[in-house]
């Protein structure tokens, strides 16, 4: 059971970064976290679009700063890292929200698979690696929330990789590794290139998206385990959550959940007083079995 007491462990000095926050679920994250009284760094890959989005929140009296950030551009990530370190000295919360999905409706084209894997998995990983050294020690622990998907569940009923031996390796901490996850996504991309992916035993729905989010979920489990070894007071908790099917540009505005509702579980997870929660996948404030 999750102990979810309303303990306010954060303050206006608590720094929360949101990637891809110029619109959609990311913008809602920025709005809600700022509404809880944190200082939010709204990032956007397009500078002027980010400034406009931040203005809306700043004019509403929220404590929101803004900076350019393209999670796939090494130079952008390193410039952002330098800026945040100089201006704020560190980070307490990272919301890895930026992501892409080019599948709409029942479409399952592999045209943009590489871009999808790169943004959703490698982009998220870039940010985790860049921000961990900046995460500040605190009694509550620093937090990373990855906006993921239940389509990327390792043992999902309708969406999972069929190779049982691989699933077994990915499901055990003794055999799970970054190399194994990277190899899984590389194998998938090679099969897309060769046009053999259909017989590769990959998830059937939104295949490339599901593989990218599976990689994010598994990487989070791996990191959670590594970060758990840090000394008390220096802990970093990392979790994933599925926002549901959300009415944003990504779904062509066809989802059944508002962006506001979608961000809610992620905000709850980021601010959770219970410190033992790490390496999990949530939806609707409930833990899903990976
Ligand atoms: P949107 O398409 O509305 O927003 C995506 C955001 O990610 C945009 O701000 C976009 O920037 C940004 N982005 C994309 N690539 C990059 C990059 N390389 N660097 C920085 N930012 C980037 O989608 P949603 O709000 O719906 O999606 C947010 C997250 O939620 C994603 O991770 C998505 O996979 C996840 N999700 C969404 C679901 C849904 O039903 N909508 C379901 C499950 C998960 P720009 O405006 O410049 O394109």
From TrEMBL:
GO terms for molecular function: oxidoreductase activity, acting on the CH-OH group of donors, NAD or NADP as acceptor. SUPFAM superfamilies: NAD(P)-binding Rossmann-fold domains. Its EC number is 1.1.1.-. It is an enzyme of class 1 (oxidoreductase). This is Short-chain dehydrogenase/reductase. Pfam families: adh_short (PF00106). Belongs to the short-chain dehydrogenases/reductases (SDR) family. Keywords: NADP, Oxidoreductase.
